[in-house]
Amino acid sequence: MTTTIIFTIVSLTLLGLVLALILYFVAQRFKVEEDPRIDDVEAILPGANCGGCGFAGCRAFAEGCVKAESLDALSCPVGGNEVMKSVASYLGMSVAEKAPQVAVVRCNGNCDTRAKTNHYDGYSSCAVMSTLYSGDTGCSYGCLGHGDCVVSCSFDAIHMDPRTGLPEVDQDKCTACGACVKACPKMIIELRNKGPKNRRIFVSCINKDKGGVARKACTVACIGCLKCQKVCPFEAITISNNLAYIDFNKCKLCRKCVTECPTHAIWEVNFPIRLPKPVESINVEQ
Amino acid sequence: MKKLLVSPAPHIHGKESTRGLMRDVIIALAPSLLVSIYFFGFSAIKLAFVGTITCVLVEYAIQKYIIKAKPSVKDYSAALTGLLLALNLPPNSPWWIVFIGSLVAIGIAKMSFGGLGQNLFNPALVGRVFLLVSFPVIMTDWTTPASWFREGIDSSTGATALSIVKEGLSKGMSMDEIFAQNDFSYAQMLFSKIGGSVGEVSAFALLLGLVYLIVRKVIRPHIPLSILGSVAIFSGIFWLISPENYPDPVFTLLTGGILMGAIFMATDYVTSPMSSKGMVIYGVGIGIITVLIRFYGAYPEGISFAILIMNATVPLLNNYFKPERFGKEVKNG
Amino acid sequence: MSRTFSIGGIHPGDNKISANAAIENFPLMETAYISLSQHLGAPAEPVVAKGDKVKTGQLIAKANGFISANIHSSVSGTVTSIEPYPDLSGNLVPHIIIKVEGDEWLEGIDRSEDIVREISMDSKEIIGRIADAGVVGLGGAAFPTHIKLSPPPNKKAEFLMINGAECEPYLTSDYRVMLESTEQILIGTKIMMKALGVKKAYFGVEENKPAAIKKLKAVASKGYKEIKIVSLKKMYPQGGEKQLIDAILKRRVPSMGLPIDTGVVVHNVGTALAVYEAIQKNKPLIDGVVTVTGKCMTEQRNFRLRVGTSFDTIMFAIGGFPKDAVKLVNGGPMMGKAISKMEAASVKSTSALLLLTDKETRRGVEGNCIRCGKCVDVCPMGLEPYLLNRLSRANRLEDLEVNMVHDCIECGSCMYSCPANIPLLDTIRLTKTQVLRIIRSRPKK
User: Fold this and answer.
1) Structural domains of chain B, count
2) A101-269, which class in CATH?
3) How far apart are CA B276 and CA B306, in angstroms?
4) Inter-chain touch A121–B5, beta carbons under 8 Å
């Protein structure tokens, strides 16, 4: 009995030692020399592996930071300025501060304003639907409403609003990683500066059709009427292909265009409700 | 204006449905069920009823109350599992045996993997093997209950042909002696076996089911044929070397649930390979393991274990044995 | 045993209910909407302007780039505008819109019924004339025919193959053409053989069209001996180029390859007729035979339809959109494209309009994959659709390439057979284009 026990203990111990030695030599033999700073930079990063920086993941980004000559072209959208600052100070480099951004959905054609013209009976995916046809409303630019952006979001920051059938961004959770921008086959979602006090103004439409065609398909479409361009005191609005676009770097948030727009296609977000002249302002995220 | 329906091609769809396929398998089991009712009477009805109802109810309850999914018991897959389990039990089993087996089959082997299509092992077989190792006495008691047409056989002669052979061989008897002593005949085995599970009474009824499944294109013949073929060849080799000590291949094929396993258990869609090559390898593997367990293992029969072992290799088989690709090799002329 | 391709295949119901309806000329429409991108490749460049008077058969848009084709007016009248107009998929693309005034044809087009048998042009002239006439493949993809007839210099065509399989259910336009213009197709085949410089042609027809096979064989035996009529076992998707070559010659087109890699050029029956008309009758491609069918319709029709007829007009002509129908398909039920806008107009490659009821076409509720392997069984390319679907949903492009998603011919057999109603092809089609783009972007070795 005792001999059995002793034999078992000895043989197992020997086996363990031999295997440990093999493992040790293999690890030595195939050791990969890596810059130890990559580990440290990776530790500073948020670790979301969202790919918003353009790298495959946080480790690849850390490697990129360590190898890079300057950090100007690199940015972690999730960590924002603070993380980039600590990465820069660790690596002894400097980094320019970037304005925080947020994803905005540039379509406001909900079920009431954009009449259905077709029924769709296929796999519920915007990508599949967009390769098939223009969409089940008259507007061939607008949101298809199957939520590819929702699936793509790693931060639970975008959801379909069942009332409007449009996606809605949670500005507190959104890290501006850009995953939804890439996921949307219609290229509706854009990253824009968050703006002072989170206030921002944007054209919530990307329909490039002529005014009449666009209006027929959707009552809240941008019809390219030039009114907003004329009223803007800062030359922040440009109109091309029958579509207005507000440059967020030039916009001073005066809100003149919002009142001027005849189709309410220009949205203001997070502004106080106007008291003297009650204009139907659509505050999405309150 | 009419709102046109738009969807990607194809615009028409075949008539086959999961429900229809499962129903076809149940229909294929009907002859065996009827024969077993003829031989075992109320006992067979009781087991089939308890098995089917328990499986359906357990699946419904798990989907509705635990994983909060839309119940899918209408697809008959749970009912089929229950029926298969019941047909693989000894005819004299108490009702609670099939109840426990059903709980294990659906609750552990099927739903805990994620439900239909996700399970690695055949649920009915997991249930049966669970019972076999937990309640060995009940599960190897082959006494046959009385039926309306036939009197019950008492327990002393109620052993299966296989266990008689195994016991006889261990006592040093030769095959001829065992056959002479027990009055086995192939006709008996083909139409009404001496002892065995509820559904295995008649090999003929099982083969009828196989023909139905193949004609209706529910299954392809690759798996059953490769199992039966490999069992016949492999056990035939043993028999040719030493006819004294091993039963002949026909006897091996007709006993111990090989037909039941090859036709209904191994062909379960979820737990069998997809490509023809994979199917054949899977079938041959089952055949060889079955024969090895029979001739060298502790249990008189081995197909249940053989199928479960090969179930575990299915993901690998699917990965390594791809169908013949159209454009892979350039064959001209 | 008659021949068919070697892997997979399905038997969807035949439903050739319009087979006995003779081809009739569709009445002239009031307005023609002629799309500028009716072919694979870049849109054509318009050569007419608003207010111009055009005649039937006149060139109105020139090919733009290598893979492109000329477009001719299918009617005579006045160009009212050149503007974006919905195409089959509802997207606005430039169309030339012509108000129809009478039916005055351009001089030089032979509109008589006389069959011209003598082929006077040489290979180069033929290809040039086909390019001028704007002939595109009428089998579905609308690939410009003159490019297919000029194989790259390092590849040699051995055989020409005419695709008369028409394996899709419901479609009968090719069948009617084979019956009614038998000799014209065979002359068209000879013209293409001359253009390619090949000595032998195969003409594949499925067995479910015995009348067409009989007539083709009878005519071919008198003066068209180099064209072999091959009767094929009925099996979908036999009309796929790769499947047809496999069925007739037992040669397999390699992965990512073209039929010319096996020494074969495949053309459709409709294309053969268009080639005949372009070369022997000097008539550009401005019309085509279109089956208008559906079980919900009381009358089944085969029309000779001018390009640019709006679907509204067609529906009006057959007595209104049937009440039960919910879906209008341009093409067959397996590979056709569902039309989203009724105001859209027919294009060169329109070969059928199929009306389906909700019951016939509505997809079932998607269930769990039961791993029955039926999709693997039926896939004519030997792929594993169940696996490709799963990988596609996870967007695992590298694994998809290993499993050869790029070989998928989008025939829909897998989805047709799936008992769990899984939208296999929807997801596979999506990643297939992505994988193809990745493969093509790689530097050539």
Assistant:
1) 2
2) alpha beta
3) 19
4) yes
Q: Are C54 and C77 in contact (CB under 8 A)?
A: yes
Does B108 reside within a domain?
yes
C-chain residues near A136 (CB < 8 A): 340
Q: Which domain holds residue B53?
A: 18-139
- C residues 132-171 closer than 8 Å to B (CB): 169
- The span from the CA of C335 to the CA of C416, in Å, is 11
Do B172 and B277 lie in a common domain?
A: yes
- Domain extents in chain A: 36-91, 101-269
Q: Cβ A133–B5 below 8 Å, yes or no?
A: no
d(Cα A153, Cα A172) in Å, to the nearest integer?
A: 14
B62: which DSSP letter?
A: I
Domain span at residue C177? Answer: 1-21+110-362
Assembly ipTM: 0.87
Assigned token pair, C251: 């040669």
Asked if residue B172 belongs to a domain, the reply is yes
Question: Last residue of some domain: C362, C386, C402?
Answer: C362
The one-digit pLDDT tens for each residue of chain B (333 residues) are 678 999 998 999 998 999 999 999 999 999 999 988 888 888 889 999 999 999 999 999 999 998 888 888 888 999 999 999 999 998 888 999 999 999 999 999 999 998 888 999 999 999 999 999 999 888 877 776 666 665 555 444 456 667 777 777 777 777 777 776 666 666 666 665 556 788 887 888 899 999 999 999 999 999 999 999 999 999 999 999 888 888 888 888 887 788 999 999 999 999 999 999 999 999 999 999 999 998 888 777 789 999 999 999 999 999 999 998 987 754 433
Residue in the structure block whose two tokens are 């059938």: A165
**CATH architecture of the domain formed by A36-91:** Orthogonal Bundle (1.10)
> How many residues make up chain C in this entry?
445
Among chain B residues, the shortest Cα distance to A133 is held by B6
- pTM for the model stands at 0.87
